[in-house]
Specification:
With 295 residues, the chain is mainly beta. It has 3 domains: 74 residues, no CATH class; 97 residues, Cadherins (Immunoglobulin-like), CATH 2.60.40; 103 residues, Immunoglobulin-like (Sandwich). The chain is 11% helix and 35% strand. The chain has 5 helices and 17 strands. The strands form 4 sheets. A 5-stranded mixed beta sheet has the order 1-5-9-10-3, with no helix packed on it. Strands 2, 4, 6, 7 and 8 form a 5-stranded antiparallel beta sheet that branches. A hairpin with a 2-residue loop joins strand 16 and strand 17. It is rod-shaped and about 105 Å long.
Length: 295
Amino acid sequence: MTHKLTLSTVMVVASLGLAGTVSATEQIAAKLNTTDCNKCHSSPIQSKTDLRPGVSSAYNQDQRNLTGLKAFLAQSPAVKPAINPIAVEWDAEVGQRLEIPLSVSNVELGAFRILGKLAGLGFSADYIADSGLPTIDLQWTPTAAQANKAYTLKLTAQETLSTKKLSSVPKTVKIRVWPQGNRDTAYISKLMVATSKWANNMLTLKGKVILNPLMTAAEKSAFLQRTDLTVSLTQGTSGTGTALSPALALNLQSNGSWILADIPLPAPVPCSLTLSLDGAKASRTLSGAPKDCVK
């Protein structure tokens, strides 16, 4: 997508030391045979504060004819556009639009486009951000098929009207896509019940929680240390059977394993049961269940 920005008509001659009310476009840019203010300025503000290094001293050599400034610009290498610093990691949720503002400096002739490849990627109309720089928003709404995946995206700003059509150094961002809804549910990839044993009229369960590989080490550690996790037990394998007990506190080990012991069950004892944790479910046949267990 190409975004063309209108050159400012603000009177900025004073920024280079000239008197009067003749605009920079009419006097300075005309003498330089250019309409690109970025040759001397690093931002659309176009004042003394954003003059590029060497411009002021070159201008002062010959303020009337600008010979010094012309020579300086002739030998100066072309300045590539640049995308302002942005966060390198972003989180997105299925069905929710993610927006990343991309401010660009040093765009010759005010026209540029953003290059990046990702299914469904789009961009907003250009606007001027609070920084004074031309900006567009990357816009992306991930689909259900893109959930539980991380995408690495390279973004480049490229001039479209300049002769050389220079491109910026790419900015690389990582976007994690989470399923829609409760984040705790998204954090749990799988709930496992390894053993389910009935002995001495008490139930013992052992298992493990497998966390989403999208999570960082810090996120995994924080989740495993939580003390507010609870599970429910229901009869049968559907997860919608009769409740077998009140909610049970679940304490996870550093590797995600857990043990629930000394749980009494109402008679008649079920042949199988289902454990539920934040939407994740796991069923298991009850080892040691009596012959008259309820199926």
